[in-house]
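Researcher: I've been going back and forth with a colleague about how Methyl-accepting chemotaxis protein might be arranged in three dimensions. Neither of us has a model we trust, so I'd like an independent prediction. The organism is Crocosphaera watsonii WH 8502, in case that matters for your notes. Sequence below.
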Amino acid sequence: MTNAGLLNEQIKGAEMSLDGLFWTLLLAAVVLSGVSAAIAIIIAGGVSKSITQSASLITSSSSEIAATIEQQERTASQQAAAVNETTTTMDELGASSRQSTEQADAAASAAQEVLKLTDSGNHAVQETLEGMEDLQKKVAAIAEQTMRLSEQTNQIGNISQVVTDLANQTNMLALNAAVEAVRAGEQGKGFSVVATEIRKLADQSKQPAERIGGLVSDIQNAINVTVMVTDEGTKTVRSEMEIAQRTAQTFSSVAESINNVVINNQQISLNIRQQNKAVQQVLEAMSSINQGAQETASGLNQTKVGTKQLNEASVELLAII
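Model: Here is an independent structure prediction for Methyl-accepting chemotaxis protein. You can compare it with whatever you and your colleague have in mind.
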């Protein structure tokens, strides 16, 4: 049986005991009134036999009343002990409830602190995500610029190749012109000098074009490496963003769980406070019952004294007769 059921049984028992005491006292009062009236009639009539019968009746009734009162005294004593025991139990329950309230409040406060930390962590993750998004945009912009640079470098390489080809063709034409000038003899000497100068200019144009081609090749290799690194950086940023997003989702789930813990602890604390209030009300009710039992015990004692005096009076009356 739960504490509430035991308490209800004890309260019902106390009410029944008080009802029994009430009817016992009422019966005693009626008997005393009847006995007083009978004595008055007997004395007024002066009949000896009636006096003897009435005195015997008084003695018998007094004994029965005394026995009933003793039974009620035992019942009242047991009830008082039960009330005291229940009061002690309720006091302990109240202390335990107060301790539980404090623990629930402490747990709710701790959960709120953890919730604040979780919110801070979630905020930090969101800032990290924003930073990664900006970094991803910058990496994408670098990749785009690198691709443009690669295209422009290719164009430069193509132009350099054209210059090299033109220089080679010019060199071949100058060589052919020099051969023809030699064949022309004395008349072709001037043309031979011009052809030689043209060959020199062609060679001079070819050398920078070749150097430009080499530089373009080096630049193209560097661009290719940059593109590869940029691609790896893009993949890394994307992977880190996915991790950060999962972390943010985890923080959100943890925050939701902790928020539920806070709500549950607050509800527990509220329920325990209501229980404390109910316990206090029960303690007040038990105090009232205990006070009523004490008053009833006092009334029983007075009735017991009166019954004893009545019994003594009936004995004296029989002795007189």
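Researcher: What would you highlight for our discussion?
Model: I'd start with this: The domain at 3-320 is CATH 1.10.287.950 (Helix Hairpins). After that, consider the following. The mean pLDDT is 72.
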